[in-house]
Amino acid sequence: MSNENRIEQLEMKVAFQDDNIEVLNDEIFDLQRKLQLLTEQVTYLVTKLKEAEPDNDGIEQVDMRPPHY
Length: 69
Hints:
With 69 residues, the protein is mostly helical. It has 1 helix and no strands. The longest helix is centred in the middle third of the chain and has 50 residues, at 3-52.
């Protein structure tokens, strides 16, 4: 195999790897964006759940039986 063929093969491999790196980078960017959106949604839901919880300050807990009794 001549040096010219070897160089050509190496150039093809580098080009292929560059394309793969670009595709993977785009995928990572999309996943980070989705993760950020999900994090914001979970934070919003936690806030809403805390707002919806009844305020039990000063109220005695009533000893109630679970529904299966």
